[in-house]
């Protein structure tokens, strides 16, 4: 059959082949730029002014040792751990940055629709931990930025993703804020 192809056909096929190869190379390039560009996770001993994924993962490891469902001791332990971390930041903060930590215990209830069913939940003696990081000359009326995440975990799960990872990121973010020397122009409120 090959002998039946004219030299024009052959160069035509060569050109088609060339286009196909170029298309493949460009597709790979675009794919790698769009989907494969991950930020390199930083280790536990990364500089203190950088967000370290390893330090965040360490928080997740501590938080997921016990279940943190409402009423279980793990929930209280998590609250103690979060508060300790924030108190540590308070001690390390320079004089131009203010860190305030507060713990509140509340009772309450809420209703929601889940899978078409109406449900009501009630909780008692639930601990919330709040930290405000601001410049030393903050005024009580300054508008703030709220960053929040829940540290209780869903039923039957250690809750690494829901929402240990949020809490861990918040703790690392709070630490970076205090230890980077950056003064937030507006107070940051971390509500756990
Ligand atoms: C929450 O409920 C418990 C038990 O009913 C009660 O002892 C406690 O004082 C309540 N706390 C608040 C903040 O209302």
From TrEMBL:
Gene Ontology cellular-component terms listed: endoplasmic reticulum
Major subcellular site: endoplasmic reticulum
All residue ranges annotated as the Peptidase M28 domain in the record: 128-192
GO annotation terms (biological process): proteolysis
Keyword Transmembrane helix: yes
Domain of life of the source: Eukaryota
Keyword entries, A-Z: Endoplasmic reticulum, Membrane, Transmembrane, Transmembrane helix
Keyword Transmembrane: yes
GO molecular function: metalloexopeptidase activity
Localization, UniProt: Endoplasmic reticulum
TM annotation in the entry: 12-34
Pfam families per record: Peptidase_M28
Reported cofactor(s): Zn(2+)
PANTHER family attached to this UniProt entry: ENDOPLASMIC RETICULUM METALLOPEPTIDASE 1 (PTHR12147:SF22), METALLOPEPTIDASE M28 FAMILY MEMBER (PTHR12147)
Protein name according to UniProt: Peptidase M28 domain-containing protein
